[in-house]
Amino acid sequence: xxxxxxQKRLFIKTYGCQMNVYDSERMAEVxxxxxxxxxxxxxxxxxxxxxxxxxxxxxxxxxxxxxGQIRLMKQEREAAGAGMTIAVAGCxxxxxGEEIMRRQPAVDxxxxxxxxxxxxxxxxxxxxxxxxRLAADFAAEEKxxxxxxxxxxxxxxxxxxxxxxxxxxxxFCVVPYxxxxxxxxxxxxxxxxxxxxxxxxxxxxxxxxxNVNAYRDPDGSGGLAALARALAQIPGLDRIRxxxxxxxxxxxxxxxxxxxxxxxxxxxxxxVQSGSNKILKAMNRGHTVEAYLALIEKIRAARPDxxxxxxxxVGFPGERESDFEATLALVRQMGHASAFSxxxxxxxxxxxxxxxxxxxxxxxTERLARLQALLDEQQVAFNAAxxxxxxxxxxxxKGRHEGQLVGRSPYLQGVHAAAPERxxxxxxxxxxxxxxxxxxxxxxxxxxxxxxxxxxx
Length: 457
Known about the structure:
alpha/beta, Transcription Regulator spoIIAA, 5-stranded mixed barrel, 18 strands, elongated
């Protein structure tokens, strides 16, 4: 049985004005997802934060005096095999910066008053640098080690986890704290599992990860592109997909693989979240709209028939109507095959929850309706554009009607067609004759000998 990590103790000492008191309360909130609970004494604390004031010189010297005492506590804890992280926040941190670290090397972090929402990211990185776990139940390696060596599946498609965790620290997301650091499974273990799946009749795998394109084989054989090339060599495994990706991890090797590897389906889910650079910066996404569009251009150049899906969040703190209009403009420019859209949800403890400019619920609802209307329009148009095309369809199961099978197109659309049951688990050519928002319908294309024509897109 996994053992839940004990709650860590947080001591915050506040100097100066009421604004600092407010900031200290917010710090406690944003650190909660890391498993920190507030204590009233620095002795025995896992994390000590001094939220400082720079109004008077004596106040600054008091901070350094306090740090000297806390340094001794830190040394005592380290001698006992425990640890203590010391952070200096507030105005002294803003004014003196590196000078604090020079005068008191025991300090681990210095955070200015406008950046306290970054504390979870900074604390998490400090813990990881020391090889410590946060509030996770157990390590990803232990979880995968505990799984049975052979999975039993019944369908022709399967999910295959290759990566867990996240190092991106988007301000709206708790994944970096609940799932921990990015961790990749060894390619050998993945290939062994995929081989077993193929032997059971699986024809298509979807590689999973919180940041799946951040995959790096810990044994050094390469990233996601190299893994996909190896998977494509497994007999019977004809289709490869992956989700969810981050634009910052979409490297040239992976882009090239989309153009060179026939097993890669021409469908990519690549979340952008907003069309406003101001909002993207507040989200800590690490990319701009312009960089995202340049990336999409490279991907489409490598694979001209690729369809793009994405994620969008509306009503993020500070989002004005002009920011939302920029998102609509980006959607129009992208022309999505499909996309997911959500109202910003204020998660207690996440950095974004403490940001100013929280958008009223009714405004978020109205904006989401406008965005979804546009996305639905694009999805309907993309599906309608398939009419008249012949697509390779992987048939997965019987349909609701007698003599009907249901499968998936390369673009992940459901496809209905009259076909013999023997084609379940096979890829066959279907001429598309009808389209709705969520699915396609068509006619099986057969050769003169009566065998389905197999094609690749």
